[in-house]
Amino acid sequence: MRTLSEWSVVRRDKVVATPEEALAGARDGASFAVGGFGLSGIPNVLIRALYDSGVTGIGVVSNNCGVDGGGLGVLLAAGRIARVTASYIGDNKEFARQYLGGELEVELTPQGSLAERLRAGGAGIPAFYTPAGVGTPVADGGLPLRHHPDGSVAVASPPKEVREFDGRPYVLEHGIRTDFALVRAAKGDRYGNLVFAKAARNFNPLAAMAGRITVAEVEELTELDPDEVHLPGVFVQRVLVLTPEQAADKAIEKRTTSAPPAGEGTVS
């Protein structure tokens, strides 16, 4: 029987030195699950490294596709993305332009279904039934996947299987597996165990589960108490440790401020 110290040697150190090493094997046409919500919790350094790599024609699975000039929007504007599976298009005019102009294939999926499809794929579940989307084009088919340049529908989504359970209809959704997953965590250890902060815990763990090769950029490399781990390292193959400057570089989609009440904020 191994001692605890012997087990620590057996566990593989997954830290890589550079973003280029983190993305080794990424190729044209590969698929990527990307964590984050808008610009919250996105793997900015890995997205930039993917842009710098020149890889193109990729498929992206993410809640949305960044914003104009930020996040995945950088890859989108460069024409590097061929297909997007997402639940939201808003706040990205270039995303909408490419989709409506026939330059981009888009599979729109209810947000909860998208989250569960990523989780299911990572858990080895090929498909599941859900009531979300029943009685709509999500289940019945006809959602535009791709448009002609004139705006007419070139390719529409096919109908999905619907079955009744306990007198209620459910639509069949398939789990998602991707070639890579790119995620961001607040803390991680050398073995790929991750902790996410606040809203970054939404799609990041699910995206990480779906990737065959999952790369996590972490703001802090540290020892973790097993009880605080949000995602076990079995789902993570590579860990990229951010510099303090990279960790602090967090964009805000819509900065909203208000004037202080009268009499406050002044110097007499």
UniProtKB/TrEMBL annotation:
The keyword Transcription does not apply. Gene3D superfamilies: Glutaconate Coenzyme A-transferase. SUPFAM superfamilies: NagB/RpiA/CoA transferase-like. The lineage of its organism: Bacteria, Bacillati, Actinomycetota, Actinomycetes, Streptosporangiales. It comes from Nonomuraea phyllanthi. Keywords: Transferase. Belongs to the 3-oxoacid CoA-transferase subunit A family. This is 3-oxoacid CoA-transferase subunit A. NCBIfam families: pcaI_scoA_fam (TIGR02429). GO terms for molecular function: CoA-transferase activity. It comes from the Bacteria. PROSITE patterns: COA_TRANSF_1.
